[in-house]
Amino acid sequence: MTPRSVLRYETWTLQPDREPDAEPVLYAMQCAVDGETSPTSEDFAEPQEWVLRHCGQNPAHHTYREIITRPWRTWRQM
What's the predicted TM-score (pTM) here? Predict the structure, then answer.
């Protein structure tokens, strides 16, 4: 007797999780010069304010990265 496999192809969907119980979208900024990162916040204004303070304290730091943590969800289409 030889082993047999059964394959089942399914269609999955992926999208941002906007359900009421979803985790919040979080924002942060990171200095590309020294790697320092702002506190994470649900309000993007807070990381922006951190950038302005950081570049004021470090006048040669002009480059930053935006870090967004966004919850996603998947489900199988029937």
Answer: 0.79
